[in-house]
Amino acid sequence: MEYSYPFRTDWSTQEVIDVVSFFEAVENVYEKGMNREAFMDRYRRFKEIVPGKADEKRICDEFEEVSGYSSYRAVQKMKQATENVHVRM
């Protein structure tokens, strides 16, 4: 990938790592598929760091603009899965 992940300068190093981990999970869902529970764990951690809907939308839109991958669609697809299954976009 030839792009950088969105992050905020006021986040700790661990928070940056966890947000990047979430965006890597979004990439995995599109490219290879991913276990639902593992993805949702990363999403829950992302939401701890970015709890506001407006901030989440802004950061996810930044990621989609550079990567072409929709975090929103990946999260919705995972939420629709009723079991802990391997999901791919």
UniProtKB/TrEMBL annotation:
<dbReference type="InterPro" id="IPR023324">
    <property type="entry name" value="BH2638-like_sf"/>
</dbReference>
<comment type="similarity">
    <text>Belongs to the UPF0223 family.</text>
</comment>
<dbReference type="InterPro" id="IPR007920">
    <property type="entry name" value="UPF0223"/>
</dbReference>
<protein>
    <recommendedName>
        <fullName>UPF0223 protein BTO30_16365</fullName>
    </recommendedName>
</protein>
<dbReference type="Pfam" id="PF05256">
    <property type="entry name" value="UPF0223"/>
</dbReference>
